[in-house]
Fold CHAD domain-containing protein.
Amino acid sequence: MTDTPLATQAPPGGEGLAGTPLDEGTPATRALSAHLAAEAGGFLRELPSVDLHTLRRVGAALHTFEQLLDPAWSQELREELARLGGLLGQERAYSRRLARLLTSLDSLTCADATGTERTAGPVPQQREAEGLLARHPGAPKARALLERQLTLGRSRAHTTALQELGSARFHALADRMTLLVSDLPLRPGAEAAPVAALLPCAVAEATALVSAVRALPLDRGAVPYSGDMLHDPGDDQPWQQLRGLVLRTQYALEVCGPLLGTRATRPAAALSDLARTLARHRDAAEAAEAAALAALTPRITPATAYVLGVVHADQRLEVEAARHAFSSAWPDLDRSGWLTDTWLTNR
Amino acid sequence: MTDTPLATQAPPGGEGLAGTPLDEGTPATRALSAHLAAEAGGFLRELPSVDLHTLRRVGAALHTFEQLLDPAWSQELREELARLGGLLGQERAYSRRLARLLTSLDSLTCADATGTERTAGPVPQQREAEGLLARHPGAPKARALLERQLTLGRSRAHTTALQELGSARFHALADRMTLLVSDLPLRPGAEAAPVAALLPCAVAEATALVSAVRALPLDRGAVPYSGDMLHDPGDDQPWQQLRGLVLRTQYALEVCGPLLGTRATRPAAALSDLARTLARHRDAAEAAEAAALAALTPRITPATAYVLGVVHADQRLEVEAARHAFSSAWPDLDRSGWLTDTWLTNR
């Protein structure tokens, strides 16, 4: 699988329609085709390596603008993209988890020099930062255990990813992406819609995001040290799903960029910040789970288990901190009306 | 040791001079004598049980108003009071630690019904709060271990306290308290000082408190989730010492109550809140240490050790939360000028 002539002609991916000149008579499907062709072209150019962001952007566009697309075809491709993204994402997830847990453990166990800068007061105290587990006998073993288990997980995920990239299923997906570049399958009659028809689709994503956030206990998250971390963590799932909704809304605004102009800049930046916060939530929750799993390893020493308990709690604190950050940042975006007012549709 | 006639004549302790009518010509030493006589009288009346607050209040007054008192005598009595308070406080400290750790552990391990109330959103979710360690196999063992160790510590502290209360040293202290009721040893020439001379003594305590707080990293504490809990807890000692300074200032304002009138009400209430926050800091730090110590018990299972690691981290989070609460509340008191402006001296 190498670059195709079509793919090399496509504009660089990930920029929405920002560079494309548009007038109001442009059909919505032409604008959407250009966006998807750019993304799919990027995907094909980079083969055999796969950019997970591209998979996510294509999947998001297929979801957001489904009203313009052949429904069965777009549904099927979305499912394939989600499956592939999940599969290829595992290796990276293990790397993130390992890096996060080792960083946490090193910070918990080692004395380092960051303490001086972080200390306030007129006379900087010349003490060193020292974690709670400094010189703890279980720390080196816990570190080795986490490293071994997560490296093994990453290797397995790597093997699975390589197998996937050589499979007929992946080749079929690449063929569909080629179709996306050249001949986007549309819903009958969709060609008549003007470019402004993209906007209500983006509004629907924003509305779904707002509804999902309203179902969350934000007022609890906004209070620091609410005890959610350990005593009542609740379900991580609604927070994790939120990230997908935030990204879909962000990508939808990017696709509608030429229609919205500078009005889209601030909400897009705010959404991007929220997505980063939610990625931290996901990473910390996954790392906490990995620490808890490692503690179930047979025949570890009590000291190792103790250290893993502290590491687990530390990552759950990061989860709570991420929820607090989201809960503190969201009301500004919500009050701004960027996502719920009618300005998206009233050009 | 039973009630003395003198003691029964003394007004109830712990109220400063609030009830005593004063004019400006009253000697400071007479006001101070009345205060100390009331506290010492309370101490003697309650024998053989000892109220630790009374010990602390007498010790604080001896410190704050030392300029009016026989220095060697008051220094010696203060040291005896501090020693006795430390000794008798151990039993109560073990009880607090045990209660705190069991409450934490039960909350971490049990499902309970508080979740429904704490959940926001239009439709209250009918889920139950569930701690991170719910159904963890190490939880019952960790609970039993903590209960055993801390109950043992409390029993030992109880024995030590009983021995102390029967000792010649304690009888000598009670004799000194009797002297406090009847014949306060004054510094030569102190009788000439008018009652207003109490105020600069209180100001000196407030100034010492402000200096101590300025040396703390309050701007770090004011940021929630700064990572102080586990990664850079620093030294608990300056925070613990702060509690003594807060209480001394609060007690000094109470003694000066009749001179200050309602102006003392708000700072006294603010100081009382801060003292409670710092007591939480102390309790959580001590409980964290007890969990860490329990984890060093030989031959515990890894599951038990893991649970103790989570409990340790949980208590350190409480320490961080207390620092955050203090750091958030202090600036209001500081900006109010109650403690540093000259109003305390400008009647």
